[in-house]
Amino acid sequence: MSEAGNWCLIESDPGVFTELISGMGVKGVQVEEIYSLDESTMEELKPVYGLIFLFKWQKAEAVPSLAHSDNSPTDHIFFANQVINNACATQAILSILLNRDDIDLGDELRNFKEFTFDFPPDMKGLAISNSDLIRSVHNSFARSDPFVNEMKDPRGSKDEDLFHFIAYLPIHGALYELDGLSSGPVNLGPCTDDNWTNKANEAISNRMGRYGNSELHFSLMALTRDRIEVYEEQIEEKDCLLLSLPEDANAERNKINRERSYLEHRLHLEKEKRQMWHRENMLRKHNFIPLAYNLLRILAERKELTPLITQATQKVLAENERKSKK
């Protein structure tokens, strides 16, 4: 794999992904964690641009059984082979962003897409690895922890569970699975803007079914339009409706005001969630090692550290003894 700078592991979290996308200059989108692809969930999140699926990687990954067997050309698809350690999350995000025409990519990603348009998948992967913007934004989420081994890759270890991100999205009337560790895009068959998430649900369920009931480590996120923008536009629409009503339309006015109040509540919750995401991201990036070191040093100087260690050790031994007697 390419070593174009070390790429850190990043946490599977909608707040992390949303801030990462914003850091690359993309406007008007966010990531939401979802637990179902049912119609009501998808209707609430519309428009959904694509899905990001996290699963435990297996060495002998097979092509999904739902794959379409035709030989449709894929030169209209941005597909990059993963040639970078730990880059699968960012590549899954890019797989959606760079295959949509209805997302404001910003100048740098738009130029990157145009520059790499005719590149083969391996060269697209190398272009990602050499992008200062993409690498620096990705690595801005590196954990400030000297005890964490940041360099891990699905093909790099046999002794631990390793996880991998892939993307699902509709492209020109077909549902595609885009996995940087595959040789190319996987066509899962024709779909429409209305039913593609149902088809993706089938493909994801099929993949999860290979693991049996013992495996629970999956995560699914949706790349959607910025919910703050959506709610603000909907509130503005309600205001326009209110202004257009005749003075005697009290029942209709009350109904619209109730709907507007509900949207205001959702907007308030969304803004609170963004503030929480920002705070959590700041904490992720902060190095707490000096704080911990100084706390331990002060306790040692006060001769309070050894008694605390002894007390904690005795507590653990007592708990282990209690469990062994069960």
Automatic annotation (TrEMBL):
<feature type="domain" description="UCH catalytic">
    <location>
        <begin position="6"/>
        <end position="225"/>
    </location>
</feature>
<protein>
    <recommendedName>
        <fullName>Ubiquitin carboxyl-terminal hydrolase</fullName>
        <ecNumber>3.4.19.12</ecNumber>
    </recommendedName>
</protein>
<feature type="active site" description="Nucleophile">
    <location>
        <position position="88"/>
    </location>
</feature>
<dbReference type="GO" id="GO:0016579">
    <property type="term" value="P:protein deubiquitination"/>
</dbReference>
<feature type="site" description="Important for enzyme activity">
    <location>
        <position position="179"/>
    </location>
</feature>
<dbReference type="InterPro" id="IPR036959">
    <property type="entry name" value="Peptidase_C12_UCH_sf"/>
</dbReference>
<dbReference type="InterPro" id="IPR038765">
    <property type="entry name" value="Papain-like_cys_pep_sf"/>
</dbReference>
<dbReference type="Pfam" id="PF18031">
    <property type="entry name" value="UCH_C"/>
</dbReference>
<dbReference type="InterPro" id="IPR017390">
    <property type="entry name" value="Ubiquitinyl_hydrolase_UCH37"/>
</dbReference>
<comment type="similarity">
    <text>Belongs to the peptidase C12 family.</text>
</comment>
<keyword id="KW-0833">Ubl conjugation pathway</keyword>
<keyword id="KW-0378">Hydrolase</keyword>
<keyword id="KW-0788">Thiol protease</keyword>
<dbReference type="GO" id="GO:0006511">
    <property type="term" value="P:ubiquitin-dependent protein catabolic process"/>
</dbReference>
<dbReference type="InterPro" id="IPR001578">
    <property type="entry name" value="Peptidase_C12_UCH"/>
</dbReference>
<dbReference type="GO" id="GO:0004843">
    <property type="term" value="F:cysteine-type deubiquitinase activity"/>
</dbReference>
<keyword id="KW-0645">Protease</keyword>
<feature type="active site" description="Proton donor">
    <location>
        <position position="164"/>
    </location>
</feature>
<feature type="site" description="Transition state stabilizer">
    <location>
        <position position="82"/>
    </location>
</feature>
<dbReference type="Pfam" id="PF01088">
    <property type="entry name" value="Peptidase_C12"/>
</dbReference>
<dbReference type="InterPro" id="IPR041507">
    <property type="entry name" value="UCH_C"/>
</dbReference>
<dbReference type="GO" id="GO:0005737">
    <property type="term" value="C:cytoplasm"/>
</dbReference>
